[in-house]
Write a structure and sequence with these properties.
The protein is an alpha+beta fold. The protein is built from two helices and four strands.
Length: 98
């Protein structure tokens, strides 16, 4: 779990978004994934993700959080993490000029 997900404001607002989403699913309303746009089915696992990623200046406010399919959210996070790791390791692998 990253520091972003330990932030008290994120925890509070993610609980609100999750409660709202669960209530909508229980009523039978259609809830769409914020990333892919497809419907989240009742009983299907989902995450609360950011519209504007926190690493890019997004906030943990309610208007910046949305439900997302678990796979969509986590694979996007994996891509961001891999890009950071690969950029760092490229710099570290440079050979010294002798």
């Amino acid at each position: 779990m990253t520091a972003v997900h330990k932030d008290p404001l994120y925890i509070k607002n993610a609980r609100i978004v999750r409660a709202q989403t669960n209530a909508r699913l229980k009523r039978g309303d259609q809830v769409n994934c914020g990333k892919c746009g497809h419907a989240i089915q009742s009983g299907q696992r989902y995450d609360v993700g950011h519209i504007i990623d926190a690493s890019r200046g997004g906030t943990h406010d309610l208007h910046n959080l949305r439900p997302e399919h678990r796979h969509e959210n986590r694979s996007a996070g994996g891509r961001v993490g891999a890009a950071v790791t690969n950029a760092t390791s490229r710099r570290a692998r440079r050979l010294p000029t002798w």
